[in-house]
Design goal:
Blueprint lengths: L2 E5 L5 H13 L2 E6 L2 H13 L4 E5 L5 H15 L4 E4 L5 H6 L10 H29 L2 E8 L11 H21 L4 E10 L10 H14 L4 E6 L9 H4 L3
Parallel strand pairs: 1-2, 1-4, 2-3, 4-5, 5-6, 6-7
Length: about 240
Amino acid sequence: MSTIVIVGAGPQLGYAIGKKFAENAGFNVALVARRESQLAAMTERFQRAGVAAAGFAADVTDRPALEKALADVEERFGPIDVLEYSPAPTLTDLEEHPLVSAVDLTVEAALPALETNFFGAITAIGQVLPGMLERGTGTIFGTTGAGSGPMVVPQVANANVANAALRNWLLALNDSVADRGVHVAHVALGARIGSGRPASEPDVIADLYWNAYIARDAAEIFHFDLPDPSDVELADKFRTS
């Protein structure tokens, strides 16, 4: 049975992606996030639906803990077939490390976003990619806010420089491993997930991941569904809540 691991799993999009893969192809679902109570609640939802699921607590900024969590996933479920990386800051995180504009960007403001959005992804992908290459199959998704893609959002510069770094690396990585059986894709979301707009509902967005997994022909997916262009500055804050 195949396994998907969702790093930064939340009760809306993270749950919807896991549910989509479980319902469509019987995937095991491994959830990685910081809060054990949230992991327990999500795992219980999956198990009530008959899905083999488990939570693995880790902070993506704690690289040894993240590596161990992914190793524990493989010990529990076997090889990881799909990795989806999408940690997002909580309101508490944003109070501690506020979003800043392009003119106010400093090294100190950029580092927390780089730790979460980019360095954590390097760690997670570095843990699963060798096995995927050895098996000659696998899929990796990295999810960011809209400003990391073809949109310029100067209001959230610290988040977007980190997300842009991830985007650039994922596109380069896909070019590097596509002929070895591994598909890598960047997903840029500009949406208030669960806000009631039809194209912003978690199940609808989860379809993007499933379709990309099946088609394996898109290195980048851009999904924009905000009611007002000015709302794009909030995309990183709300994309996986």
